[in-house]
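Notebook entry, structure prediction.
Reason for the run: the old model in the group folder had no record of what sequence produced it. Starting over properly, with the input documented here first.
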Amino acid sequence: MRALAFTFLFFATLLPGLRAQSVENRSPLTIEQIMQGEKFVGFLPEDIRWSEDSRVIYFSWNPEQDTLRSLYKVVLGASQAPQRVSLEEEKQLPEAGAYNHNRSLMVYEQAGDLFLLEASTGKQRQITNTVGGEGNPSFSGDGQQVVYTYENNLFAWNIQSGATQQLTDFRKGNERKSSRQSQQAEWLSDSQEELFGVLREREAERNARKARRDALKPARPTAFYYGEKRLFNLRISPNLRFVTFSLSKEADDKATQVPDYVTASGYVEDMRGRPKVGGPQDCYEMGIYDRQRDTVYFTSAAELEGIRAKPAFLLEYHRDTTPFNPLYEKPKPVIFLGPVFSEGGRAAIVVRSQDNKDRWIATLNLEQGTLNQLDWQHDEAWIGGPGIVNWDFSTGTLGWLDEERLFFQSEATGFSHLYTLNTATGEKRALTNGPFEILDVQLSHDKRWFYLNASAEGPYEHHFYRLPTSGGTGKLERITSLPGNNEVVLSPDEKYLAIRYSASNQPWELYLMENKPGARAQRLTSSTTPAFNAYAWREPAIIRFKARDGALVPARLYRPEGQQSGGPAVIFVHGAGYLQNVHKWWSSYYREYMFHNLLADNGYTVLDIDYRGSAGYGRDWRTAIYRHMGGKDLDDQVDGARYMAEAYGIGSGQIGIYGGSYGGFITLMAMFTAPGTFSSGAALRSVTDWAHYNHGYTSDILNTPVEDSIAYRRSSPIYFANGLQGRLLMLHGVVDSNVQFQDIVRLSQRLIELGKDNWELALFPVEGHGFVEPSSWADEYKRIYKLFQQTLKE
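New structure, fully documented this time:
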């Protein structure tokens, strides 16, 4: 396999017009410069957190451009100038942890040991000091004990006495049982006892001794053996009676291999990769251990509404003469997430179907192990959206307001909004509504307020809001005011906001603000370099153009200074699919943003589109690509090209397209299936055949290859390679463990067999999916720039 892969590494045929030569650049920016990344822009503040007394903000920063980032702090009330934290001080700082009810104590894990912190004084007390690793600490409901995990079991440490108690005894493997005697041996043994009194007396004495030893033993939890399954997600009720846990049985699915050719050893080393979409999936169970009854039992999702419903797409494959049966015989496989406990010990869980179509919220009767369904969200495409369970094993937004009311998020209206649900009456109440999304939810300590991150001002800005937990129309109150994106970390006393703020042409900086609407935000950091500041960075215009189906498609527009019409143009296709890049804050695609400024300086019009499937615009926009990637998402690129031609007089043959990952996939589909639209395209780290990508992402959108082959064939560029027109440049990292190098190798072989000669492959031996080395970034973008300069300029 390695030999085969290496055969392809150097087969790329250089296009005659793309051989090494100097390419004109009229911009004061250079590709080598902007592809230095943070070394050119500046190292921006990250990982912001507060001290437990709300007096100090800590963050990761590197204004001196050292080899590594360091921890910095801003002390409130002092000069408020950032100070570098010494390593000695950093070692003493507590990690994030869990509070008791009145927030006077916090317990946290650091380097595998547990510590108790007195919030008012900062005094620390070490709980454990072991070679093993303790973790996941929390307080019991009465605040008297610290509960934690160690080697897949739960322990409790009494704060007053310092005594430690083991709460569970989960053991991997199977219990060893004494071998059973044959019938003949049992008969002989029984007859011996019947005949000889001394044997009966000795047996009675042995049983009495054992009974006494057992009576004198301290109470211990009964061992529970869980075989070869994986045990995880141990949680305990506030009264320490019920322990919930998850078990998974690993599927026998073949993993991929990613060869690494440039290694320290000099030998090719294989890295274990992920399985491909559609293979067998792990099976999941949720169990309950009742410590009072000393017994283990399991919950079941078999009675949930819709648990046997088949996805609608299967009807398209029904060829039988009998009517299509919309129900499976058995319940669909599910994943149990949670539980989330109320202060009084009620448990709520999320159940997600493994076919990605259903999300249930239910209360869990801990004593009986039964579920009471409260909410069912079904989507014939797939369940998703902000604050809603996805494939990351989190419940999404879910919590208790009191012993009766839950809060959660749902896309029931087409946008992810916040709801409360009365578990006694079943009443569901929307607290927010409208064509915007709730992105993050935090409940205040006194449970009077929700603090929300939302796009209520429109999809292009994110702000911090508060909302009474009682709800009410028009009660959503905006606190931040700076236009762009405000990433807020609320101080523990809820009096201040540490804000990481940016605008479209201003990178992220740290600000401080009182937790009051209209308060002034004070800037605390200046991170950008003199070289970055020397250039007048464009603020891209945000426009909407009409697609062929009437949808208004948002895009960022870069225009050359003083150019009225004409000239070359480029469409950029962002990656991930479900990602937003049309907005008023500093883009995660900041290198591409700088490259677009360079292109505009050289006379290019650049359009950066939030095509169908992008984040930020609700459920219908998100799921418009269901069962056909390369459908409406590609139409939006083609319609964007038409818009540029009509609005800015871009001539025929002067439009190119490029993008990475999902953007590379769209670029390939454009070059293969939209003849005459794009003269050239650059496809970076591209998916070429969705049947070879991972399960979690792909099965959401295309189901699985065996069950939905139609969706995979019409969505995969490799099946349309014969339609290639124009010049195509493909670029890929050899050690890409996400979109694996095999993808581009398979497509290259397909192009060779089709006799295509208008393409080129550039490979990057030490790069994965996200490039790291500035030299690789620069080489990649010099090739892209050269392609556009030589194919789009008249």
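Summary: Residues 98-167 form one domain.
The old model has been moved to the deprecated folder.
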